[in-house]
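Intended use. Records like the one below are meant for learning the mapping from a protein sequence to its folded structure. Do not use them to infer anything beyond what is encoded.
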Amino acid sequence: MTSQTPHLVEELRAMIDDERISLEAVHRITGIEIESLQSFLDEDGSQAGVDLLMAETPLMPGDGGRLSTLIAQLTGGLQIDDDERVKSILESLVGVCGLTERNLARLLEVDESVVSSALDDISTVPAASRYKLGVRGSYLINAANQARR
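Structure written out for the chain above:
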């Protein structure tokens, strides 16, 4: 459990209240039953945060970690600059997935120099190419994640 756990519970409540996400969407994304999510959110705020990663919660084992990850990604993750996100996607495809710049260029249907430039300094890449790298790179990340399951 981290010191940010109670804040994550409150952030989820705020996101639902602000209609940035619905309880149904959280259910579909995480696979956590709506009744469990609702019971969890209805708990006393001071206790709910403490319970997120512990056994005495309406959530099943493992649910707290998935929920915590989703909340963190929907809050802090969306604050990352789009150009930096595209560069990070490419870096992940190279560093984690083991794809080479040449592999990426062929998969993303861009010139290898575009991939190289994006990895060096994304701001030097034209907007249309950054868009293509971002959209197609996101697809490749998703494909890699699906293959790991």
